[in-house]
Amino acid sequence: MILKPKKVTTKFEYPLDPDNQTMASYEAPIYSRDYKGDPRAQILPATTLFQYPFPKGTAIRCDQSFDGLNSSISESDRTHTGLEAFAVDFSMPIGTQVCAAREGIVVEVISNFADYSQDPYSPIESDKGRENKIKILHSDNTYSTYAHIKQNSSRVTVGRKVAIGDIICLSGHNGYSTGPHLHFEVSKSNDEGKFQTLEFSFNDGHGNPITPQVGTSYTRI
Ligand SMILES: [Zn+2]
């Protein structure tokens, strides 16, 4: 027997232009966490820029960015490959506030895994998948994921609406993690029901698109 996912529809609003003069609304289906989403999803509008997922005024270094665009990372240290190719790692001490990079609805919260005290830590294969995370569904059926977050630090629950900039949790160091950091990615479900990351840009604070570069620090203004 195939169970259909529970469906609730929520209205989202988003600006059609950078000056927020024209707002558009969008009815998005919100499913249970077992629902894997829409393989046709793409970031809409295409000009959408994501806010840095950390508090204002703190310089945060990018330690890994989109695979292939950052050859400074040795092949063996790259984890952002394949389906994870367009993920970003920001180095930050455990307990740094994590802020929503885009509005949406929380569809998954995992926060029961303990953080490592060792830094650096050498993760092993079995640490994969044992990371805490929050996943947020956007109006275009894409998702943002915040991973390796601190144990029991989530300030949101499944079904909760978040606005851009809301503090959703604290950063941590668990799962397949070599040191305290936040892993951030935007994804959609692919045809096999797996999450596949999508290329996206951050907002430099002035409406200009930024692709993070390894070794560069970014400050949210
Ligand atoms: Zn990562």
CATH evolutionary superfamily: Glucose Permease (Domain IIA)
Assembly state here?
A: single chain
Could you tell me the radius of gyration in angstroms? Answer: 17 Å
Share of β-strand residues: 25-35%
Order of helices and strands: EEEEEEEEEEEEEEEE
> How many structural units, i.e. domains?
1
The ligands bound in this entry are: zinc ion
Q: Which CATH first-tier class would you pick?
A: Mainly Beta
Query: Main beta sheet, described?
Result: 9 strands, antiparallel
Q: Kindly state the mean pLDDT as a whole number?
A: 85
CATH topology: Glucose Permease (Domain IIA)
Q: Please count the beta strands (DSSP E, at least 2 residues each).
A: 16
Helix content: under 10%
Total number of helices: 0
N- to C-terminal distance: 51 Å
**Can you name the CATH architecture?**
Distorted Sandwich
Shape: globular
Contiguous low-pLDDT stretches (5 residues minimum) are 14-18
Model description:
The chain is built from no helices and 16 strands. By secondary structure, it is an all-beta fold. 35% of the residues are buried. The chain has one domain: Distorted Sandwich (Glucose Permease (Domain IIA)). Strands 4, 5, 7, 8, 9, 10, 12, 13 and 16 form a 9-stranded antiparallel beta sheet that branches. A 3-stranded mixed beta sheet has the order 3-14-15, with no helix packed on it. β8 (133-137) and β9 (143-147) form a beta hairpin. The site of zinc ion has 6 residues, from loops.
